[in-house]
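dumping this here before i forget
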Amino acid sequence: MFAGEQAQAALCEPLAGLKREHAPLREQMDAFAEEARRLGSDRDQADWSSQLAELMHKVEAFVRGLDPHSEREEGTLFPLMANYIGRQVGPIAVMEYEHDQAKQNLKTFMETTGRETGPVDAARAKEIAEYALKAHAILTDHFMKEENVLFPMAENMLSAEEKAQLSRAYGLA
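structure:
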């Protein structure tokens, strides 16, 4: 089956649920990325600390939604798929690497922002915001890969019992 044909396959409820979770996450992520791009844009503004704090709140809210989503993938879906395709190389290795990279950039953004105690000039604001923008770029591409490749692959690969296991793990059964 070609990738285009896989993407057209209907997904079982747990996989469809994971895919549906991407929409609100993407909205939050796009909103914080838009704000991150504006940080430091006005060189005449002396202090960007309040805008940085506002961005921090948006990123924290996003992470609160992202963490349970990625836990569902890492805790159940990826291990089930790894039984067929392995975990050291290939799609699961890539997905886990991207999860790690995105989470690290978000963590670095939040930790760095949290350490800023005084005024933040435009250059420093842009430097800090770059971590949030890197996470956005990684996750934008990552969600697309999951929706167009990984979830359809899982739909075709997993047995009915494994899909039922996903449903139970996700509280759907």
